[in-house]
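Reopening: structure tokens for the flavin mononucleotide complex, inputs below.
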Amino acid sequence: MYREIAIISIIAVVVILFVVLPQMKKEPQELDLSLDKIIKLPEPSYDSNTSVEKALLNRRSVRTYSNESLTLAEVSQLLWAAQGVTDSEGHRTAPSAIALYPIELYVVIGNVDGIESGVYRYIPNEHALLKIIEGDRRDELSIAAGKQSHIKNAAVDIVFSVVYEKETEKFGERGKRYSILEVGHSAQNVYLQAESLNLGTVVVGSFNDGKVKKVTGMLDNQSPLYIMPVGKKK
Ligand SMILES: Cc1cc2nc3c(=O)[nH]c(=O)nc-3n(C[C@H](O)[C@H](O)[C@H](O)COP(=O)(O)O)c2cc1C
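Re-run output (same inputs, fresh job):
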């Protein structure tokens, strides 16, 4: 009798440890878009005095910024360049393998007029921000990236993450490659848009993934790939 109870207990523990708990961990987390925290961004501009050629010619990685704040219009323009929706079918400014769009953008705001400091998610379909975390997290984000001071000194840090499953479910392992390539397209758009707005930025790929996830409140299934600090050029 005792032997049977012991065996059943061991089986129960094994099932909980290796079947139930891993499933609970994988439970996808949903974004509550019904929150009144959604902040509509100003309509982006579709024109400028900077040609694509000039933006390409002058693009440079910029790591020193003035203390001046950015406007919400500038933040709107940068996010639209990164992942804005550009037609009625939901296509975006950057290409995506069969339009699966695995990129999720987080915005660590510290010095932007008309919006409180905090961590926000960009919602492309609404061209809006959703607040995730209150307060200025630039310092902690900088620490998560080996104390790279440009992250702390920027007015805003755009954090690029991907949900690999969106593409691996369709393409297998190759979906990972596609997701990473897509972040490259999106980040280059931000470089060129920043140049056109006379703002400075740089792609940062050197950081501790776990720490960046924690600081930004990223979901379990999202992987950070780039941080782009943005500020006024000095
Ligand atoms: C994949 C990748 C990772 C990078 N990581 C960092 C980084 O962690 N920190 C940083 O300051 N610059 C980083 N950079 C920016 C490069 O240092 C920069 O692009 C290079 O010096 C060339 O200068 P340019 O962008 O002005 O042409 C990275 C660039 C790439 C493409």
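The chain has one domain: 37-232. The chain is about 40% helix and 20% strand. Marking as resolved unless the reporter disagrees.
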